[in-house]
Amino acid sequence: HLHLKLQKNTQLQQLYFPCFMNTIIKKKEAVSASVVRKVVGDYVRVHSLQNSTDRKEVVLDPVMRSATGAPLGVNTLPWDQLVSAVFTQMGHSFKVELGGNEALALTKGKLPPIDIHVGTRSFNKKVTLVNNLELFSINVAEFARECQHGVAASTTINSLPNAKSVQLQIQGNQVAFVGKLLIEKYQIPKRYIRGLENAPKKKK
C-alpha cells in the first residue's frame, strides 16, 4: 500500500524574526507547527512574560506584539490565542511524501486539493479533468496509464499557463473511477479531493 504523508509547515517572516534569533532556525526557513509552539513557549518563559496574576495570560512585549500582530491597546493574550495568532502571521508551506517518495521541495502556500471536474469538448463529448496530481507526488503519466487500462478511455496530459501542476484529461465522465483510484490505491484522504460529487448518478 502507498501511504500519504502531508507535512504542513510555516515560514518565518522578517517582522518578528527576533523571537527566533537564539535558535538554529533561519529567516524564511520552513518549520513545523510543533517547533513554532516550542520556540514561542521558550521565549515566553525566558523573558518571564506569563501574567503574574493569571498564568493563562501572556504579556506582549514588542517582539511578541510583532509576532502576533496584536494591535496597540491589547497587552495580553491567552496562551492558545497567542500561538494561533503567531501561525496566522506566518507564511504557509507544505511537503508531500507518497509511498516513501518525498516531494522535491517545500511548496509555498496552502495545499490545494486534487480537483476533478467534468467538461465538454468537440461534438459535446464529456471529458474528466484532473488537476494538482503532481502536488501530491503522483506521477501523472503513470496515473494516466492506470486510467486508460481501468476504463478503456484515451487520456491527454495538458500544460496550463500559471498552473502549479499539469492537467490530466480523460475521455468520458470517469470521476468515480478516478476518485476510487486516489482513495484506495494512493490513499489520498477525501478532504484533499474536490469534485467527487461530479460522478454520474447511479441508475435506480
UniProtKB/TrEMBL annotation:
<dbReference type="InterPro" id="IPR036885">
    <property type="entry name" value="SWIB_MDM2_dom_sf"/>
</dbReference>
<dbReference type="InterPro" id="IPR058886">
    <property type="entry name" value="SWIB_eIF2D"/>
</dbReference>
<dbReference type="Pfam" id="PF01253">
    <property type="entry name" value="SUI1"/>
</dbReference>
<dbReference type="InterPro" id="IPR039757">
    <property type="entry name" value="EIF2D"/>
</dbReference>
<dbReference type="InterPro" id="IPR036877">
    <property type="entry name" value="SUI1_dom_sf"/>
</dbReference>
<dbReference type="InterPro" id="IPR039759">
    <property type="entry name" value="eIF2D_SUI1"/>
</dbReference>
<dbReference type="GO" id="GO:0003743">
    <property type="term" value="F:translation initiation factor activity"/>
</dbReference>
<protein>
    <recommendedName>
        <fullName>SUI1 domain-containing protein</fullName>
    </recommendedName>
</protein>
<dbReference type="GO" id="GO:0001731">
    <property type="term" value="P:formation of translation preinitiation complex"/>
</dbReference>
<feature type="domain" description="SUI1">
    <location>
        <begin position="114"/>
        <end position="186"/>
    </location>
</feature>
<dbReference type="InterPro" id="IPR001950">
    <property type="entry name" value="SUI1"/>
</dbReference>
<dbReference type="Pfam" id="PF26291">
    <property type="entry name" value="SWIB_eIF2D"/>
</dbReference>
